[in-house]
Design a protein that fits this description.
Length: 582
């Protein structure tokens, strides 16, 4: 009896231990994939939302090369069309005999890109990534075709709006697809490749646009997109394999947060148009500008209320902003986009108008910046994938970029190759790391189910920053030229001086070239002095980014990869999880 009793007493603890280990194993299997990349307490993804899939790298290099090359082509097109018309704008405006064309053909693309970004992300949650990416490619194709065959200024502006909406979808969905295809630890190097493509396309755009305009026709700035978008569509249709919920069209349309989409797009459009008009078409104190800016801010407030209290499936889940690290990361993303584009947009302008370089030569000079940026972007992406660390790199990049932009203030009004080369190198090396580090920092701090919307928000904030940066930089520069108008009238005459003042300054490179050498030097000096004021503002914005980076938290990057389910059923399950948590 005693022996059997001892045996029973020994077996019960073993049974209890086995039971506990079994339960722990179930918990670890369900939670570990989430906890490895998310902050405790903010992740409430249900295991039923996840699909156990392999990282795309494990399916073979050939498939990775095919899909990534196509995604890179999509980004190349979207980024190229931000700058390709820069050198063609005067010719296009003259062709249509419309000064409004000069202003709107460039800005409407950026405006549509910014305004549409978050909507594309939510559409992909409802209908799946692949169908919506193909739709974005189609939008870009149709917009490019409308621009290429346009017969009047209204048609080309409308085409650029459609093209910009498609471009916003391409930039947003490429980043979301990379997040779906690769693990947190693997994806930084692919974001690095995307950064290289973006930088290369932005820098080569004015050169290609100038060559087409001079050698063939400005219409080829848009015709060139058609065969490339066709190739992208066919390859994505054939090779991209991402979860497709096959959501019925009418059910999906009923689930869209139309009120949120309208408030988001309307607020963005009004704010950017107000900034575009301010000091150029209307005085800053005019009723038009004040009403547009205030209406944009009010619409932003309405958007927050809609997402918080009304929307069943919000375009932008506000839970993304519960953690201060995410707010800081988006702030860094804004300051980086705002500061980086200043060099990408205004350095070629400096080369042309101050140094007297041709559009082709200015593109070659600018290669110093774009090559250094591209190399750093690729190197940093590989480093983050290897080490899993990103915060130190992010901060170093911000410091170097801000330093580099500060050095641009010291660029002279004559050619100085040591400064042109060194200052571009510092700025490019500093800008490169933060094409991928902030998006990794953001994705690491949100639940897997929120990665798509967090990514769409990231693209929206960057697009908004770029749009605002170009407008605000242009206003500062134009005000600088306007303040020098009295002196220019005395030095070069009223006729030439009026062409170089205010909103006319940016489009008057040809006027400067036509002046006598002595007067030309005076005009170039005025341009140079006005640009120095602009660089100072960009340095201040970069410094703000450095301060914000202090509040970013670093998390470990998981090598485990699971793809999120999309579709209405998945959205409903997530909503139920939210209610249980609350």
């Amino acid at each position: 009896m005693t022996g059997s009793s001892n045996t029973e007493n020994k077996s019960k603890p073993n049974d209890d231990v086995n039971s506990i280990l079994g339960k722990a194993d179930i918990i670890i299997r369900n939670v570990a994939p989430v906890r490895s990349i998310s902050e405790p307490g903010i992740n409430n993804t249900s295991p039923s939302d996840l699909i156990g899939v392999q990282d795309l790298e494990k399916e073979g290099k050939t498939k990775v090369v095919i899909i990534m090359s196509t995604l890179c082509l999509c980004v190349f097109l979207a980024a190229l069309d931000q700058t390709i018309i820069a050198t063609a704008l005067p010719v296009i405006a003259e062709h249509f005999h419309s000064s409004a064309t000069y202003t709107w053909i460039g800005s409407v693309y950026l405006l549509a890109t910014s305004a549409s970004a978050t909507s594309w992300g939510k559409f992909s949650d409802i209908w799946g990534r692949k169908p919506i990416l193909l739709l974005a490619v189609s939008f870009f194709f149709i917009g490019s075709l409308l621009c290429a065959i346009s017969s009047n200024s209204s048609m080309i502006i409308a085409g650029r709006a459609v093209q910009g909406a498609g471009g916003g979808g391409l930039l947003t969905l490429v980043s979301i697809c990379i997040s779906d295809l690769f693990s947190m630890r693997t994806r930084p190097k692919y974001f690095g490749v995307i950064g290289i493509v973006w930088a290369f396309a932005s820098s080569i755009g004015p050169v290609i646009g100038g060559a087409f305009t001079q050698r063939v026709s400005w219409r080829w700035c848009f015709y060139i997109n058609l065969p490339i978008t066709g190739i992208c569509f066919v390859i994505l249709l054939s090779y991209l394999q991402i979860h497709n919920p096959r959501t019925p069209l009418l059910e999906g349309l009923a689930a869209v947060d139309w009120l949120g989409c309208t408030a988001s797009i309307g607020g963005t459009v009004m704010l950017l148009i107000g900034l575009e008009f301010g000091g150029i078409k209307f005085p800053w104190s005019s009723a038009t500008v004040v009403c547009l800016v205030i209406s944009g801010v009010v619409m932003a407030g309405i958007f927050v209320i809609v997402e918080w209290k009304i929307a069943k499936y919000p375009v932008l889940p506000l839970r993304i902003f519960r953690h201060k690290s995410n707010i800081a990361t988006l702030g860094v993303n804004f300051t980086h986009g705002f500061s980086f584009i200043s060099a990408a947009y205004y350095l070629p302008f400096y080369f042309q108008v101050v140094l007297g370089a041709t559009p082709l030569l200015s593109g070659l000079y600018f290669l110093i910046f774009s090559v250094s940026l591209s190399f750093t972007s690729l190197l940093v992406g590989a480093m983050i994938s290897t080490t899993g660390r990103y915060l130190g790199i992010l901060r170093i990049g911000l410091v170097l970029m801000t330093l580099g932009i500060g050095l641009l203030i010291d660029l002279p009004d004559h050619i100085s190759w040591p400064r042109v080369v060194l200052y571009q190198l510092v700025t490019g090396i500093g800008a490169g790391p933060n094409f991928q580090a902030p998006i990794i920092a953001l994705q690491a701090m949100v639940a897997p189910r929120d990665i798509a919307m967090a990514t769409a928000t990231y693209v929206f904030v960057r697009s908004l920053a770029i749009s605002m940066s170009i407008v605000i930089g242009g206003v500062i520069f134009q005000n600088g030229m306007q303040s020098r108008l009295p002196q220019l009238v005395q030095d070069i005459g009223s006729s030439a001086a009026s062409s170089l003042s205010g909103s006319s300054a940016g489009a008057s490179v040809g006027v400067v070239e036509s002046l006598a050498p002595a007067k030309g030097r005076i005009a170039r000096h005025a341009y140079w002095a006005s640009m120095r004021n602009m660089w100072t503002v960009y340095v201040a914005v970069g410094a703000a980014g450095i301060i914000m980076s202090i509040f970013i938290t670093e998390k470990s990057l998981s090598k485990h990869h699971e793809e999120m389910k999309t579709g209405l059923r998945s959205l409903e399950q997530r909503k139920a999880v939210d209610k249980d948590i609350e």
